[in-house]
Write a structure and sequence with these properties.
Among the domains are: 91 residues, Beta Barrel (OB fold (Dihydrolipoamide Acetyltransferase, E2P)), CATH 2.40.50; 33 residues, Dihydrolipoamide Transferase (Irregular), CATH 4.10.320; 37 residues, no CATH class. About 6% of the residues have low confidence. The chain is built from six helices and nine strands. It is α+β, with helices and mostly antiparallel strands. It has a five-stranded antiparallel sheet with strand order 1-2-9-7-4, with no helix packed on it. Strands 6-5-3-8 form a four-stranded antiparallel sheet, with no helix packed on it.
């Protein structure tokens, strides 16, 4: 889904629009770019990961071209049909390159007189302070489990530099725990974490059903004396690992009642 964004046929750009990934999808958000600005892409290449109300979905590019610009920031909630990426045809590379001029020749550097070598041994150089490697936010998506991604984010580790031991080289939580962070990350305990869209939707619908749908509560007292006597007799000569718990009997009773009264099962 795209449309021309420039009138010049030689440099015509195409805006890739956020597609509808479901019959009830009205909006979504880009949570990860699978390409970078300047990358050459082809039809069918994975371009981004989009978060919907139900799941995160990879979206494909539908045109050959070159990524010119990202039009929306990561994490911003946008409507279906919003332009998210600007592309230009691969044929426009030569036409869009500016004419280069001959660079000016630098002036020759003045010779620096040699300094006499010190008589004593030089002091050892101070070790460079440890710095955290920059976390990758674009490029190919590193296969990893959700728990591994969360642990890597908390520990300041880049999944791309870890060796995955999971299926297909996927990074697992154990791989992240075995790696040492360069420096600890200090979390602000006063900052409130925003829940994921799917969990927010589930919570909203459960709250609405509790408010708007009429409820009918029924309680009855049931004599379970015979059940308790049966359990005591059955479990008396059995080891602890083979004894039957009352909860198992309650679950079986509910299952039998649900099968007998199917009209209550929706």
């Amino acid at each position: 889904m795209s449309h021309p964004a420039d009138a010049d046929p030689a440099l015509a750009g195409y805006d890739y629009l956020l597609p509808s990934l479901g019959a009830d999808m009205d909006e979504g958000r880009v949570v990860e770019w699978r390409v970078g600005v300047g990358d050459t892409v082809h039809r069918g290449d994975l371009m981004a990961v989009v978060e919907t109300e139900k799941s995160d979905i990879d979206i494909e590019i539908w045109h050959d071209g070159i990524v010119e610009a990202f039009l929306v920031p990561i994490g911003e909630l946008i409507e279906v049909g919003t332009p998210i990426v600007r592309l230009r045809p691969t044929e426009s590379i030569a036409a869009s390159q500016p004419q280069t001029s001959t660079p000016a020749q630098p002036e020759p550097a003045q010779p620096v007189p040699a300094q006499p070598a010190p008589t004593g041994s030089p002091p050892p150089a101070a070790p460079a302070p440890a710095t955290r490697p920059p976390l990758r936010r674009d490029g190919p998506r590193v296969p990893a489990s959700p728990l591994a991604r969360r642990l890597a984010d908390e520990r300041g580790l880049d999944l791309a530099v870890l060796t995955g031991t999971g299926p297909g080289g996927a990074v697992l939580a154990a791989d992240v725990r075995g790696a040492q962070p360069v420096e600890p990350i200090r979390h602000d305990s006063s900052r409130r974490r925003t829940p994921a869209t799917m969990r927010s939707l589930i919570a909203e619908r459960m709250s609405r059903s509790n408010r708007e749908i009429p409820h009918y509560h029924l309680a009855r007292d049931i004599d379970v004396g015979r059940l308790e006597s049966w359990l005591a007799e059955r479990n008396e000569s059995r080891p602890i690992t083979e004894r039957v718990l009352p909860a198992a009997c309650y679950v079986r009773a509910v299952a039998l009642a649900a099968a007998r009264h199917a009209e209550f099962n929706g």
